[in-house]
């Protein structure tokens, strides 16, 4: 009987250890994805400003295609899926659209926890002027700007859906 209890306890502890390791791995993976998305977004903003910010027409009022972002070296290697497509690590698109003196960088398919983490990392840094969140890319036009820096409570309120879209206005 004592052996049976010992085997049961050992199995329970073994499964508990596996669960803890799996949880730690998933948390680490999620943090890694958020960090990569944050780095990609900042790189796209910085390179777009560097490439277009000092030209007479600046950002115009049109979309800057993924193919153009790739050809000009604006899109980071980690975001390139083909010669004409850039995506975030969650599988969402990146889209850059000029708004004359500023531009919008939009990305979607951001899970709620990652959305909250990303928003709290964004700060006004000379390039980034505003941020918006919506359930989809189409919702971003009607969304309101969130004041930077964003605290956790405001980020959790903004990232209200299971999957979110984020727009960063920069220039």
Automatic annotation (TrEMBL):
* Superkingdom of the source species: Eukaryota
Which residues does the UniProt record annotate as the domain Type 4 secretion system PilS N-terminal?
Answer: 38-169
Pfam families, per this entry? PilS
Which residue spans adopt a coiled-coil conformation according to this UniProt entry? none
Put simply, this protein is called: Type 4 secretion system PilS N-terminal domain-containing protein
């Amino acid at each position: 009987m004592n052996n049976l209890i010992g085997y049961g306890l050992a199995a329970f502890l073994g499964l508990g250890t596996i669960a803890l390791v799996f949880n730690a791995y998933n948390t680490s993976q999620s943090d890694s994805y958020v960090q990569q998305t944050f780095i990609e977004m900042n790189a796209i903003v910085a390179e777009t400003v560097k490439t277009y910010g000092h030209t007479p027409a600046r950002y115009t009022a049109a979309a800057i295609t993924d193919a153009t972002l790739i050809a000009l070296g604006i899109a980071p290697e980690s975001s390139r899926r083909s010669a004409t497509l850039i995506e975030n690590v969650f599988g969402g698109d990146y889209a850059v659209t000029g708004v004359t003196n500023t531009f919008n960088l939009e990305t979607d398919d951001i899970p709620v926890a990652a959305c909250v983490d990303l928003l709290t990392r964004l700060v006004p840094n000379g390039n980034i002027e505003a941020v918006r969140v919506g359930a989809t890319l189409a919702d971003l036009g009607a969304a309101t700007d969130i004041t930077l820096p964003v605290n956790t409570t405001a980020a959790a309120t903004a990232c209200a859906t299971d999957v979110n879209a984020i727009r960063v206005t920069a220039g």
